[in-house]
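Continued from yesterday's entry.
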Amino acid sequence: MLRYIRIAAPIAILLCIPLFVASIFKVSGSSMEPIISHNSRVWIRVSAYDIRVPGTDLRLIPLRDPAAGDIVLLSHPRTGEAILKQVVGTPLQHLDLQNGSGQIGSYRFDLPNSSTLRLYSRVPPGYYMVLGTNQAASQDSRHFGFVPREAIRGKVLGIRHNGR
């Protein structure tokens, strides 16, 4: 019996790594170019922010919160599709929108189809603002709004570019 446990335990641990620690994600689209190109593969640390029940948004153990600048894997707020975006705004951070552009902290971005209205706001508690690095090709917080903390699934640790 002990012999079987010695064999089964390492196999079980190896099988659990993608569920609790890290996984590989294939990128489809150009919203994160030039940092991450179409068909690249990225190494995602799924336990970067919390330990979850695999396949769900249920957080078992919160570890830390995403920081501005992190590139994260998240569930699209409307479709549930897995997407990559960069965190540019964290909870309670000030947001300044004016004349077709916005600023949050030191990060500036364009606002498509915006008016000449000026608006000051804050990122709500428990929410994040995420943007694609290729703003012309990205559907992000400018389109679907702030992202709840529960939607952020992991952090990009490494990138293997297509053809390299």
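--- second protein ---
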Amino acid sequence: GIKTSIDVLVERKPELEIVSSYTEPANVSAGDHVILHVRVQNVGSEEAESVSVRVTGEADVPFDFAVKSDHGGNLKVNETGDAILEFDVDKDAAKKIYPLGLEIRCVGDRDLGDDKVYTFDKQIQVEVTSSSSSIPGFECLFILIALSLTFILRRKRV
């Protein structure tokens, strides 16, 4: 048999994925100031330079972004980096899970002559666990009034 070998040239490029995200506070309520941590990993075959994470489609969510983009620096292959974004939840935000669009951008490894810009559109979920229809302290006040009324009514019976 005749053996032939074919050289396959695989184009090296960075590939960025969101590996995790969490919010502070963990339970997001209407009216809260929230810090969003997004961890990005380079799962590609080349270093990603000037990595940045930016919010997209903020018109679709009840969040007002104070910090809508962050730079994660350069990420070697398999390396992770964190981006920190900040937003205020609208006071009348409904209690539900909101899809939040994120665009991750980077430049290829310039040392390898790759100066292309790569963009990756991702989405994470941010859950608003309670709406502000209940005024903080209002429940306590209501319980106090109910207890004192019960106490007053009991005293009158004696």
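The mean pLDDT is 88. Residues 138-157 form the longest helix (20 residues). Will compare against the first tomorrow.
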